[in-house]
Each structure stands twice: as structure tokens, then as C-alpha cells.
Amino acid sequence: MIRKRWTVPMVTLGEFDAVEGPKAISVLEFYAYQENDLFGPQFLDFSAVCGKVLISSNVVSGSLHLDLKERMIAIIARVFASNESNEESVMMLDPIAGGIASVSFSLEDIMARGKKRRFCLIVTHPESSELVRQRPLIFSFIKVLLERWVTAAKDLLSKEYSFCSYSNGDQGDTCKLLMRPLMSLVSEKEESVEITLKRIHTFFECALPAIFGFEPLNFDGLSSEALLLEAVKRYLKEKILLVNVFELDLESSFSVEKCLSIDGGRVLSIGQPPIIKPLSVWLLQFIQGNVNGLKETELILQALFTGNQILVCGESSFQCANMVFSLSQILPRPLRRVTVYSEEYVMPYESRILSFSQNVCERHCFNNAVNPEYDLSELNLVCINVSSEGNIVSVKKCNNPKHIFILNNNSSLKMEENSIPQIVTRIMDLFRSQKCEEIIVKRCKVLQLQIESFVNKYVMQGFIYSKLFQQYQVECNKGILGVNTTKGSNDFSFSSPARVIKNMFYDNVWYPKRWDSSTSSVIKTGQIAKSNIPSFLKSLKSKGFGSWAISIADHEVMLFLGSVSNSL
């Protein structure tokens, strides 16, 4: 049987029991690590926990899932076998778990034989090289935690000795008693087991992102272990009070919407992820079944690739959410700012793609005007009406707040006379070629792959394009403000895209040559935004990038998709 490799960092607490042998006490899973894959699945999910869990922004903790239990117990046994002396750290490899960093330690317990019990703390990571690289930081966090645990266990032992006197003859009866859980030994100030669990969860909610997150802590400049420990303690003191933890029962009966929206527009899957219809299927069905399908599909794609808000409305909140996930799935993860099953309208800066709860869907008749609480007259919204069968009924561009939910199927669609971005034109050409073809799985898969390939290409080009535009704006602003710019020793003339890419990604420092003074001199004071764009596109063409953007619509797409780097 081929076992699946573990894909996220985890922390497991283990114990060696004289009767039961090695056992796993609990596990903490850094589920937010899945976001490292920019084009990964929309849903974040849990792979290591089951039953009642504690969850926060980045970490979930609870009992170890049965699918992982056998392998983890074997790892715990290896750790105890490798650690003959107490409080020793060991690193090793496992074909399923990846890299393993472990620390075994003992805690004093008046009820145990010899007054001590053996535990271990194991950190696993799918990339062993990352575990080795972050080894000093990992063991610094662990040391801070174990110092508190050892102190708490000693305080408990002293307190119990002050009330009870155990002789050698009582040891046999004492060992027959059930051992207390680890959380009882490390509790502080007589706190309950539940509070202790939350405190430990909060610790790792701060520690795991700091070690393995997008921007891990960097203490390379600290010369000694003592200085590193002090820096870790200061970091924890600042972060721990900001953590919110809540309880969730993964085995309770959920409704059909088996997902949970959390901060930052992220969506967690509870249990099996819902089946999401690919965007290629949604749009191809709509184009083939609607007279204005092609024009209205252009509206959807243009809003999607420029970051304008899209509202998805209809009779079924589940189908609306399905459409939201289909749209956001083709975007890079940092741009997937979505809200599903919302009880109220959410502004565009909070959510780019929005659907409503079943209560809202049932409460409002979407063919009748409503008066929302927000003034949306200045917003550029696209509204999609979805049927309960899972099909797009109509698409409308809404700028009037009184018609946010008016999606009359017979209404005529007034298209703006703006130019269409190249990426939208190319995708629409694909749909036109398939308009009269039968919808089959293979054809839709190929179409979906082609759409995603276009997006990936524009993300990379947009990253470079946005850097060029930022530098252009800086040069224009210098001319307007009367700042003298002299050519420095680091300036270079980028005559080809290859030269720019080389300097951006290899040298890590980029100093492009000044733009022509004739270009910046035409910019008037107070006109530093859109008035720059035509001149910028003209200058861009002379530098070899002209095919990337030929209109303001292309410019907006490039800046939006290229903003992925700013979100990391």
C-alpha cells in the first residue's frame, strides 16, 4: 500500500508509557502552510486532526487522526530509542513524515514510578532541508516552552509533597493509579486542562508561522544562544495576546455547506471538500445556452482579472458559493479575497468575490429592488445570477445602488465601449471555438488548463510590468517635484526583457535607467496617475515590452495580477 506523504508541518506530543508503550497525546497542524502553493486548491483542509479541535488563524490542534496514528507512534518509538539521555535533541528523516526534529524530556510526577515520566516533542516538516535550516529557531522555541513546563511540574510536585507523604511501601499502590494527562502536569496557577490546551495552542500559533511561514523570523545577526532565546521571548510576548482561539467539533453534523470562512478571505474545508464545478464548465454552459452569453462572459472575465468586485446572487446559497470558488480558483492564492454565505454586503476592499447566505437569498426577491445600507453608486460591480440547478442565468454590470439585486433575465445588457484586455480576448477566442461543440469532460479539462496557463503567464509578466511602472512613476514624480536625478553607477539600460529579469531575480537589486526626459516632461503637476499610462505604454513598446500591454485595460490587468508579489 502506497502511503501519502505528509504535506504540512506538524508538532506532536508523545509519551512513553510503561504499560502501553509509546503513544501520541495530541498534534498541532500548521494548516496555513498550504498557502505556500500560490495556485493550489481553493480550500485549506485538515489532515492530522479529528474530533474536537482548537483552531486559530494558522494552526489547528486536537487528537491525532487514525490515518496518521500508526506512523506517528513508530516515529515516537524511534525518538525514545534515539534519546537515551533526557532532554536530548535529535534530527532524522522519514519517508512519509519528511524531516523530523525531536526533543525528549522528563517531567516530575508524584504518581509515577521514580517520580518521573518521559515525554517527547516532535516537529515534522515535508521539506527536511527547511527543518535543518531553521534548526536553531526551532529548538529555541522548544526550549522556551519546556522551561515553563519543567517549572510548572516542579511547582506541582512541591505542592503535592506538602500535603501528602509517600513512603516506599506506597509506590506499588501509586503506580496502579491512572496517570494524569500531560496538561495536568504543566498547568499553571491551578488552571483547568482546557485553559492549558488553549495556552499551548496559542504558543504554537505564534511559533509555527514564525519558523515556517511566508516571512519567518530572521535572527541571523545574534551571536549566541542566550541572545536568540531572549529575542524569541520578546517576540512571543508581543504576539501571544493577539491570538484568538475557538473550539470546533469536526465530527458534528454540518449542513450542506461544509466550509468555514476565516480571516483574509480564506476558506477551510470541514471533512470532504465540496465538489466545485470548473469555471470552464460554468462559462461554456452559459455561452451555449444564452444569446448574450459571449458578451456577458467578457464582463465576468474583465472584472475577475482587474480586481473589480463580483457579486454572486441566486436562490441557492450553495450554488452561489460554488460559483465564487470556481472564479477564485484560477487566481493566485493571495488574490483570492472571497466571502461566502455572507449575511450582509461586504465592501470591495474586504472581498472581491461575494455570495450571500441562504437566509439572505430567501429574504430578498432578486427580481425586486432593495435599498442597501451602503452607497455603491461609485463602485464598479458585476452581478451574476445563478439558478438553483447550478447554471448562470444572467450577468449585469451594476453601478446603481437600487439595482444591486435586480438581475432580470430579460434585461438588455449595455456594454461599455472600453477596450477588452488581451487576456480576456484570448480566453473568449477559446470559448468561441467551443461554442457549438458538445460539452464533455475531456474538452472542459483542456479548456480549464488553457485558462489557467494564460493566468499563470500574465502573473509572471505582471510582476515585471508592475516594477517597471513603479519606477516610471518615480521618475515622473522626480521631474514634477524638480528633483535632479543623476545617472548612478548602478544604472543600466534594459534593452530586452531578459536583462530586466536577470537583474531582478539574480542580483536582487534593480536600478533601471531613467526614462526619456521627453516622456516625463509632458506630465503636469497633479496628474501622476492615469495620465501617465499612455506615455508609459509608448515608452514600454520601445523597450521591447510592447506586446504585454497595448491599452489601459491591459495595464489594469497587469497591475492587478502582478500585485501577487506585494501580497506575499
Automatic annotation (TrEMBL):
Pfam families linked: Folliculin
Domain of life according to the entry: Eukaryota
Gene Ontology molecular-function annotations: GTPase activator activity
Leader peptide range in chain numbering: none
Domain Folliculin/SMCR8 longin: 86-169
One BP term from GO: positive regulation of TORC1 signaling
Record's GO cellular component terms: cytosol
Protein name: Folliculin/SMCR8 longin domain-containing protein
